[in-house]
Amino acid sequence: MSVSQYSLILTAVDFSAQSENLIARALAMRDLCGARLCLLHVVEYLPMAYSGDLVLPEGFDLEQELLDVASRQMATLGERLGVPAGDCHVEIGNTGHTILRVAEELGADLILVGSHGRHGLAVLLGSTARSVLNGAHCDVLAVRVPED
Amino acid sequence: MSVSQYSLILTAVDFSAQSENLIARALAMRDLCGARLCLLHVVEYLPMAYSGDLVLPEGFDLEQELLDVASRQMATLGERLGVPAGDCHVEIGNTGHTILRVAEELGADLILVGSHGRHGLAVLLGSTARSVLNGAHCDVLAVRVPED
Question: What's chain A's Rg over C-alpha atoms?
Fold first, then answer.
């Protein structure tokens, strides 16, 4: 890793209005460092406790439907930010673990995650941010995002 | 806070050899953003459990001695990095709380703290990093520093 600048920045996005601050920061860091920016959205597994009670229409694949919706949102976001489709990732799984896995696979040297100002990172992003911060093998920038 | 760049970066330093990585990152961020860089070293209170058992020479002020040593190290570091004396802070107290207080007082929009790659931030920096991340009202960059 160059000590002077980052070369591959992975930003975890959730498509919420609140994450515009995080996106603006990601773009600024990309431009400042001349880095490659990759986006990642993680569709969380439905908790088993719920999914057992869900009555879904025959032939309806909820997981695939969630992935499809997220992929369409990601495509729109990537186009708006000028991020090539190949650098826009949608995955299904545990958010924290998936961010770390994708960061390793891509060789990211900086991970950007959102944090909420009033409650702080650990409370609002909960186990996600904690596991990213605990497990990351690269730098992590926690970006303050506004409250709802 | 400008969304495009940081204007005041507070970096918590401990004078260890391992923190050279953190310092290099702080300098790079300062230069990239054209920001003002402030340094902070916190002398932790001696745990009361220890200090009750310490037998100190008459007239010896351990707290003041620790502050003096830290201030000399900070002066050397500030000179090396081209950080004006007025932006080099040495405080005594709880590290996490003190970082947050000084960040607020200075109006920092980015706090840099060191994290260890193998164990992750929360384990090695322990309560310090956690309280900074939980309590910060600005962005926090956790910079990976090498193991001993």
Answer: 16
